Amino acid sequence: MSALGWLLPAAPIVTGVLLLTGRFAVGRRIDRTAPTIAIGAALVALSLAIAAALVRPTVRFPLLGDLPSGLAVDGLSAVLVLTVTSVSLAVLVFAAGEFAPDESRARFFGLMLVFTGAMLVTATATDLAVLLMGWEVMGAMSYALIGFWWREPGRVGSAGISFVTTRTGDLGLYFAAGAALVGTGSLDLDGLAGAGGLWRDLVAVGVVLAALGKSAQLPFSFWLSRAMDGPSPVSALLHSATMVAAGAYLLLRLEPLLDATGWAASLVAWAGALTALLLGAVALAQRDLKQLLAASTCAQIGFMVLGAGVGTVAGGTAHLVAHAAVKSLLFLGAGAWLGALGTKDLGELHGAARRYRLVGITFGVGVLALAGAPPLSLWATKDTILSAALKESPLLYAVGLAAALLSAGYAARALFAVTRPIDAATRLDTEETGTRHVGQLERLPLPALALGSAALGIFALPAVDEAWGNLLDTENGQGPGSAELVLSSALALLVLAVTWALMRHGARVRTAWTAPALNWLHLERLAGLLVARPVFALATALARFDDRVIDAGVRATAALGRLAAALAGRRIEIRVDGLVNAIGRGARRLADLARRPQTGQAHTYYAQAAVLFAVLIVVVLMVG
Fold it and tell me: By the number of CB atoms within 10 A of the CB, which of 91, 191, 229, 416 ranks highest?
């Protein structure tokens, strides 16, 4: 049983490392077989995930002294490992068709497999130490994958910004681990809620910071915009089931900790709700399909974070699973069109769904699910979260409902752009700029993902909802009532229809918020102004202080040392040497004088003794 727990993350990680190092052994030949090897490893990982979900293996080992560490598959992590491995397989199949043989395919597929394995470690970790290992490797792989085309400075710069931003949040997890070690004497995830009052709060601070950073929630959301410079398969995996979902998963996993603090749950709930609302507005303003999908990811992850804050672990996890299917489908569809038409601009994608019908149909299913249209997946899961928010705070519910309606708005924009009939001029441009057809491998995973996006609407069924709560071993509160479901679905369909009508008549909404929303609320600029510039200014000031004061002091000390040495060599040393020489000469003279009385003649010795006694007598007399 424990071997299964090891093999689950080890299979993709070991295969990925072999692909990454294989080029040094066999050269470019490994690029030809890399997709096959990677898909095989993904199939093995999915099989192991299914077995692990049934068997529930546990691995225990000492990591830091006597502190217990390990991996375990419980109800929540079973759902995650199945989701991660399923989406990973779909994305790798798509990538096998997208990446040409002249690409560095071994490097790409190796990084993707290690990335997947790191997420599996994160999902099954039972303590903060092991979780941090998966967390860090996942961050490093995301940097390498976003900047995969490393010869283009802009992409590498985007990878650096994404990495540094998430690393800023990741520091919170180290802080949480230190506080947990002091507060509980352990790093066990299940024991964090039992830490002492102050230490529990400090652990919660670190966890919330790390989770919001990893999941691109406010104020960290801008890094996800930069991540769009990576290949489309990277976006599909990163945005759906792995790195961006990892922060939401961590909050859902540690919901008892959030609830125990009394303040962290409310903070997390409002952070998620506001992110869903504001980044929904950002998505609505975008003119780039991948940027629209990226902003919508922030918004949809916001619903998961909201679910963790209001205590509906079942609802948040259901939304995570459904969103993974929907968003991987949409990003793969966008990637197919980008490869075939050479554009991701909404204004240039007119007719794309009609030209590539399978991609268009499956993309349409995903977009409608994203809009919250019944009976598709995100309609049911979103309402479960909103129902819990209503019990917590009517205002919180209102913000969440407004965010849900924005989902319908930006989904309608994307759907209209790709289904709008193409005019003659645009058709000529498209025929000239189109680069290739969408290959069979790229089409293969789309129907399965579309089926998942539609079928996961079963979460709305009361029996399924109850079974879902039992699977996750959480308290399953009362789900949304019929009135709530009808209201939300009616509003979603109304917003879809209104947005469609406005776009059909060429209406363009230009308001005061359009420009900031188009630029992601200027979050990157604000981060640069409020964080990066002060840090660089402080670093520059410290560098100048080091150069002008500390280095000057060191140089002055060295100069004084040299001067002292010179003085000692030129003046003091001469005098000291002269004194030593004088003492030596005096000693020699005394020795000569001492040798003179030693003549060997007896009368001389007697005379000397007499003189000595005479001196003694004189001294005695003087004293007396």
Answer: 91
